[in-house]
Amino acid sequence: MSRKPRNDYRTLNADEIVVTVSRLVDRVRERFPDSGLSGTATQLLVTAKDTARRARGLSRPYFGLRALVILLTTAGVAALVLLFKDVDWAGIAGRTNDLALTETLESTVNLIILMAAGLWFLLTLEERWKRARTQTALHELRAFAHVVDMHQLTKDPTVLLGGGGSTPSSPERRMSRFELTRYLEYCAEMLALTGKLSALYAGESHDHVVIAGASDVETLCTDLGRKIWQKITILGDLAER
Questions:
Q1: Which of 15, 17, 28, 141 is the most exposed place for a label (fewest CB within 10 A)?
Q2: What CA–CA distances, in Å, run from 75 to 83, 113, 118, 126, 143?
């Protein structure tokens, strides 16, 4: 019997997250088929698939840029060889052409500086491209977390206690205690999965900016989920009473 590598149990599996989100979508659709939460869950599934694909792309190199680095390095070495080939080494050694040494040093230094600047630009371009794309994706996850939070914003468990009539501007509340509990739990699960999607980016990148951004999204989802679980706790206390 073959065993999974130990590393499989130490890192997030993007495919498993997509499967979990898909099951959550089915549960929300079955329980609340015509609700806005159902549409939000469907969007989460689309986002999860996109995130899995984008996160894998972070670990893949941009071969075009790396080919340019090799080409630039080769061209720079060739330019140095041609430069040294045309130098009057005999005059420099015999101290009959001191100007040639000065010109050679100046040309060599300028060429090395240009090569280093070009190589630095190309070597960091891949990281900057990936960082910009990932920050855009993390911003989408952050915005999505707020959308999920809006769904539970008006779900007040204390209304089940009765008393205090509603006003014309009060939101419509028809859910039973059980339905309200399930609704809030679905919201909490969606926030938790959103945080896990952001962690996929951090797991595939060594960029401190990406890791910090992913941590911020996770913290936001945790804080929003904590408010939901406080409501669920109130509903549990009501059930015990």
A1: 15
A2: 12, 14, 11, 21, 46
The torsion angles phi and psi of 131, rounded to 5 degrees, stand at -65, -45
Closest C-alpha among 194, 193, 197, 190 to residue 151: 190
Q: pTM for the complete prediction? A: 0.75
**Segment holding 122, helix H or strand E:** helix 98-152
What is the tens place of the pLDDT at every residue in 98-122? 565 566 667 777 777 877 777 777 7
Amino acid at 214: A
User: pLDDT tens-digit profile of 54-74?
Assistant: 888 877 776 776 777 777 778
The two most distant CA atoms of the chain are separated, in Å, by 106
Element spanning 40, H or E: helix 36-58
Domains, the chain, ordered by start = 6-59+127-162+171-240 (1.20.1050)
